[in-house]
Amino acid sequence: MTMCIVNMKAYDGCYGAKGLELGLALEKVAGEFSSETVLAVGAPDIRLFSENLSIPIYAQHVSPFKPGGRTGAVLAEAAALSGAAGTLINHSERRLTLADIEASLSAAKRVGLATVICSNNVNTSGAAAVLGPDRIAMEPPELIGGDISVTSASPEIIGSTVTHVSTLAPEVGILCGAGVKNGADAAMAIELGTEGVLVASGIVLASDPGAALADILQGMEQ
Predict the structure, then answer these.
(1) Which residues, in sequence order, are CB contacts of 28 under 8 Å at separation 6+?
(2) Which backbone phi and psi does 199 adopt, to 5 degrees?
(3) What's the pLDDT tens digit per position in 113-165?
(4) What residues are annotated to the active site?
(5) What span, in angstroms and rounded, lies between the C-alpha atoms of 158 and 166?
(6) Are 32 and 63 within 8 A, CB to CB?
(7) DSSP letters of 92-159?
(8) I need a labelling partner for 104 at 20 to 30 A (CA). Which of 87, 110, 131, 196 fits?
(9) What is the DSSP letter of 178?
(10) Rounded Cα distance, 128 and 119, in Å
């Protein structure tokens, strides 16, 4: 099944009651397609979203710690108890060391969360894949939040990542991120061998987020 993860980040209107309203609108659109749509939300919103939406809710980050004296940590245990179905790890806006990536992955697996490790190039994608996440999300950081998609600016990076990861860890799925804005970008991501996309501003900051999501889902399924 193809997948679209919508990262709500911390944009105004993407958390709390307004964020939930947006989430409900996106869920309605998602129900019209066969692809799985997931919302990644900040830790304070996991319970709010998971209790009011039927689509999977992911944490944007879990800390590389076990329960204990860790003030401010986002424990995998707490995320799971709040209703999270999975988590992003090592997003470009929340970079971790390799040791912490492995520890966060272990924490997420400990409580049964699905895992998506974000990476920024072919080699780091391969290194992350051998750790055993469910998916890798390839996102060249210079393209995140911009107007140029990785599928048009550097499609060879996605193709090379698919080949490299498939050789090292064929069971790990690959998502395409960074500047995915429309259905054409999403269609190209699938054509390059990924199983879906990780998007943010292209949907949540669009003038019509529901229409933007529909365009991307249609592109993946055409």
Answers:
(1) 210
(2) -130, 160
(3) 999 999 998 999 999 999 999 999 998 766 666 667 766 677 788 889 999 99
(4) 91, 139
(5) 12
(6) no
(7) TTS---HHHHHHHHHHHHHTT-EEEEEESSHHHHHHHHTT--SEEEE--GGGTTSSS-HHHH-HHHHH
(8) 196
(9) S
(10) 8
Question: So where are the chain's domains?
Answer: 3-221
For residues 82 and 76, give the distance between their C-alpha atoms in angstroms, rounded to a whole number. Answer: 10
Q: Residue 59: name the closest of 37, 93, 83 by CA.
A: 83
**Is residue 187 a contact partner of residue 217, using CB atoms and an 8 Å limit?**
no
Torsion of CA 30, 112, 7, 3, to 10 degrees: -40
Residue 85 carries which DSSP code?
A: -
Residue scoring higher pLDDT (7 or 139) = 7
Beta bridge mates, 137: 118, 175
Q: Which element (helix H / strand E) includes 87?
A: strand 86-89
pLDDT class of 222 with cuts at 50, 70, 90: confident
The Cα angle at residue 185 between residues 205 and 188, in degrees rounded to 5 = 160
DSSP string, 184-220: HHHHHHHHTT-SEEEESHHHHTSSSHHHHHHHHHHHH
CATH architecture of 3-221: Alpha-Beta Barrel (3.20)
Q: Please give the structure tokens belonging to residue 174.
A: 């690959």
